[in-house]
Backbone:
């Protein structure tokens, strides 16, 4: 009889969550991803969450497909595809009984699932405290601790400062100037020049502050609040990077993989030795 792989419930399907999904899927785990009805992923070309809008997506060699319920999710898994369900509060965990739960929503407010919702629960970044609301926390802040697993304590607090790329930090992250409906005006994954109208929020234009590759842009038609992240402009102007999972996402995914493999029962489900060194 074929051994059933361990199933991980992944809350959120944005770009960081998709880096986690890539590490786990490639290592033999099965995944079920939950999302909100209108996902707010900005790097949509590398986000499994986009399946909520498009029905099916491909990110590198991963494929994701929208599922309507647990039965369809299991059928999708049997086809070697990752199911994405609209389930804002992850109610599916009651029926799914996952081996692990990873909260990758990046909303910095802690989980809404109990600590014992799975054998091991993992939170990414701020909002989680190991041993309090999750078993383990994975650091998401760039630097020497990125991707490290903490079994006690919390991740570094959010600094609000984007990573600098070729001297651009705050300017490369596009934010809504006012409350309103977001509408994209430029093509995601294209090269744009300074002054190009990239999008509008409530009729107010968002203009490219410099030449770059439009790496991220929120899905159109969503009502958003002023200050919300809506785009990502990369001054490196390398279009190939728009379709690649980032180094940061993969580093975080590696931390999640490490945390899961500390559990002998999970290793045994993968057919590996239950002894941990």
Residues:
């Amino acid at each position: 009889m074929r051994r059933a792989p361990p199933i991980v419930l992944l809350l959120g399907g944005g770009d960081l969550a998709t880096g986690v999904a890539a590490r786990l899927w490639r290592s033999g785990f099965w995944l079920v991803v939950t999302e909100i009805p209108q996902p707010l992923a900005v790097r949509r070309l590398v986000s499994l969450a986009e399946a909520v809008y498009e029905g099916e997506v491909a990110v590198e060699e991963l494929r994701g497909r929208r599922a309507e319920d647990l039965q369809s999710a299991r059928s999708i898994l049997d086809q070697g595809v990752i199911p994405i369900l609209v389930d804002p509060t992850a109610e599916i965990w009651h029926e799914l009984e996952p081996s692990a739960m990873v909260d990758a929503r990046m909303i910095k407010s802690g989980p809404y699932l109990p600590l014992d919702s799975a054998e091991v629960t993992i939170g990414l970044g701020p909002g989680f405290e190991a041993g309090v609301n999750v078993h383990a926390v994975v650091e998401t802040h760039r630097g020497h601790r990125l991707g490290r697993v903490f079994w006690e304590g919390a991740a570094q607090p959010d600094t609000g400062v984007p990573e600098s790329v070729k001297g651009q930090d705050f300017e490369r992250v596009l934010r809504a100037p006012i409350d309103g409906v977001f509408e994209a005006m430029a093509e995601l994954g294209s090269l744009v020049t300074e002054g190009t109208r990239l999008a509008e929020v409530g009729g107010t234009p968002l203009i490219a502050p410099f030449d770059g590759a439009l790496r991220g842009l929120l899905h159109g038609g969503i009502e958003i609040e002023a200050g919300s992240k809506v785009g990502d402009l990369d001054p490196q102007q390398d279009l190939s990077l728009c379709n690649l999972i980032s180094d940061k996402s993969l580093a975080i995914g590696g931390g999640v993989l490490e945390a899961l493999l500390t559990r002998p029962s999970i290793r045994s489900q993968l057919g590996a030795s239950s002894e941990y060194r």
In short: The CA atoms of residues 46 and 245 lie 6 Å apart. The longest strand covers residues 30-35.
